[in-house]
Amino acid sequence: MFGFRHSKEPPYLPREVEPGNIESYIQNRLDDQIMWYDQKAQQAQNTYKQMQFFELIVAAAIPLLANYTVSCPAIAFIVGLLGAIVTVIEGTERLGRYHENWIEYRSACETLKHEKNLYLMGAFPYGTDETAEQLFVHNIENLLSSEGNKWKSSNSAVLSPKEKSQSGTGS
Predict the structure, then answer these.
(1) CA 9 → CA 5, 12, 13, 43, 137, distances in Å?
(2) pTM for the whole structure
(3) 127 vs 120: CA distance, rounded Å
(4) Is-contact 9 39, C-beta < 8 A?
């Protein structure tokens, strides 16, 4: 539920592309990447929505139970525990970046599909260039490289002082 499961799927190994063969490139590189981004977007979306739903249910219970804390100390403890659960869910979601990953992966997947469709249909810019395959490969590789760079920078960025203070640990 929280994305901590150890995957039993084999590690990702990209397939080899036959040099100079555009069909091999589309099948072994582009389609492979579209499938990877699609699966990762779905996983991130499902995890994000599950966490948000659970957080909503737990958070909604707090004000319902809060009226009974004076008459029953056990309920006061439960309210405090529910508040802690909300904090843990929110922190886990923030650390896992499930919402951001869902958006970024879906965007990359759809952009790759877009470029593939333009190429397959001979639409601009691929329909006007003598070396359409080269332009196509160049654009796809730029997209893939850009996504990899965004992932790297977003996961290795130094936190601002505001973010540090919000994280609660300062580190």
Answers:
(1) 11, 9, 11, 14, 29
(2) 0.70
(3) 9
(4) no
